[in-house]
Amino acid sequence: FIVSQTLPLVAVAPLVVLWFGFGLAPKIMLVALFTFFPMLVALVEGYEATEAEIGQMLRAMGAGRWRIFLLARLPSALPYFFAGLRISITYAVVGAIFAEYAGAAKGLGIYMLNAKNNFRPDLVLAAVGVSAALTLVLFGLTVLLQRLAMPWERADRETAGKGAWR
User: Fold this and answer.
1) Residue 134: inside a domain, yes or no?
2) pLDDT by residue for the chain (166 residues), tens digit each?
């Protein structure tokens, strides 16, 4: 997986477009390649952050591997997952725009490329503003999704804010 991150996207993108065509699939593959590694690292760290005592207690209570995963490992990995998702969201927009540069007929990347070729820096900056706004919206949706998926974290923060020991 580390080797996949050493490959320059500039070199890989045209190859992926040549191999898989000009449709949506190669663009999705490029975005997935670009965003997969931060998610992988975050999830591995999250699974390793599970306290061993919780797993031992669940095992002593007769829980199997899947039950331990669902009750202990997955909840402890969720904060890490969402941290990786927030990083990947920002990479995804950049990756999608670059994937459009490599081979697309329409989209924000093509719009930026055409505006640049027509010497319209105002339109390029407008497209950059749109991509930044899109990134911020997706980042905000990720934070909202995290709050919905982990209501206990907000309760923990409120308790910590009131001076209680953690």
Assistant:
1) yes
2) 777 778 787 788 888 888 988 888 888 998 998 899 999 999 999 999 989 899 899 999 999 999 999 999 999 999 999 999 999 999 999 888 888 887 777 888 889 989 999 999 999 999 999 999 999 999 999 999 999 999 887 766 766 666 555 4
Q: The domain that contains 80 carries what CATH number?
A: 1.10.3720.10
Q: Is the backbone of residue 139 left (phi > 0), alpha (psi -120 to 50) or beta?
A: alpha
**Look-up of token digits 């093509």:** 110
Rg (CA), the chain: 21
Q: Which domain holds residue 63?
A: 2-161
